[in-house]
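Standup notes, structure subgroup. Blocker cleared on the magnesium ion input:
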Amino acid sequence: MNNHGEQKLEAAKAFAIKGQIKSCDPYGSGHINLTFRLVCEENGQEYSYILQQMNHEVFKDIDGLMRNVKGVTSFLHKQILANHGDPDRETLNLVPTKDGQDYYKDSQGNFWRMYLFISNATCYNLVEKPEDFYQSGKAFGRFQCLLADFPADQLAETIPDFHNTPARFRTFQKAVEEDVMGRAQKVEKEIAFIREREKEMGLALRLKEEGKLPVRVSHNDTKLNNIMIDDSTGQALCIIDLDTIMPGFSIFDFGDSIRFGANTAQEDEQDLSKVSFSLPLFEVYTKGFLEGSGGRLTETEIELLPYGSKMMTLECGMRFLTDYLQGDVYFHISREDHNLDRCHTQLALVADMEKKWSDMEQIIKKYQD
Ligand code: ADP
Ligand code: GN1
Ligand code: MG
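Run returned:
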C-alpha cells in the first residue's frame, strides 16, 4: 500500500473509532501535514474521520501543539454550546486514542491525531462566490474575538517567529547566499523584488514595541481552505488548521486571508495573466472581518489592514522562494518548480496591490466607522 500504508493503518487502529475500517485515502490540499479521510462501517452505517500525520519537522513541540489544539477546541466547544450551536460541526473535535490520549506516536516515531470528519461542508481553494469570502471574513473576525478571552499564557509558541517578517528575510538572505541547489541565478529578478521591499518589513514589530499595535491570540494561517463553508446554508461553519494559534497580529490574520482569497487565480497558478488582486473581494472580506470583529480593533489596526495584506503576501512569496532555494524541504510540492510558481503568484499580487494602494485605503476608510 502506498501513502504510508502500514503506518496510517497502525495509527487509525490506535484511535477510538467506530466499526471496521473501509478506506483511508489522502484528503485535502494542505501544504504541511499528511491528511487522510478514514471511513469506517458498523451495522451498515458509515463513520468518517480525518486522520492526520503531523509534520514534526515543522512543529518541533508536538506535545505543546496538541495542548493548544485541545485547549482551544474545548474552549470553543463550551462557547458554541452556550450559543445553542452544534459543537460537532462548528469546531474541530479530537477523537482520543483507545487509551485516552490526544495523539498517537507510531512505531516509526511519527505523530498522528484524529478529528471527527465534518461532512456537507467544503474548503475552497478559490473564491467561487464573493458571499463565501464575506462569510469567511466574518468568521475569522469573530474567531479572534472569541479567542480574546482565551488565556494566552497557556499557549505554546508552536513555530517561533512565525510571522516575524524581518526574521523570515534573514533566513531568505541566507538561503540566497548558500544557494545549495544552484538555483539563485535563475531567480535574480525575484530576489531583487523582495530585497527592494526590505525596509517595509519591520513596521508591525516596531509598532508593537512602541505599544501601538496590540498582540492578540491569532490563528496565523487564515487562508480560505482553512475554513469550512456549510454546503446547505452557505455560512462559514468551522475554522480548521489550528496548529499555528499563537499570539500574533490581527492585521496578519486579515492579510493572510486576503493574499489567498482576493487572488483571482489559485495560489499555484502558472499563467500569471490570470493572477490579479481583486478590489471587490478585498472589499467584501473587509466588510465581513470588521463586522465579525465587533468593534474590538483599534484605529491603528484598521488603518494597517492594507499593510497587513501586503506583508503577508510578500512574506509568503519570500517563504516559497526560500524553500525553492533550499530544495523544497518545507512545503509539500507535487511538480517541479511548484514553489517557484507559488512565489510568482505572490509577488505578482504584491505588485498589483501596490498599484491599487489608494483604492485599498479608500475601502478601509469606507468601513472604518
Ligand atoms: P494542513 O496543515 O496540511 O493544511 P489541514 O488541517 O488544513 O492540514 O487539513 C487539510 C485539509 O483536510 C483541509 O483543507 C480540509 O479540506 C480537510 N480537513 C481537515 N480537517 C477536517 C475535518 N475535521 N473535516 C473535514 N475535512 C477536514
Ligand atoms: C501552509 O498548512 P497550510 O497548507 O494550511 C503554511 C502557511 C502558508 C501556507 C501557504 C504551518 O499552510 O503559513 O501561508 O501554507 N503553514 C505553515 O499556502 O507553515
Ligand atoms: Mg490547512
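Discussed briefly. The two ends are 58 Å apart (CA to CA).
Next: hand off to the docking folks.
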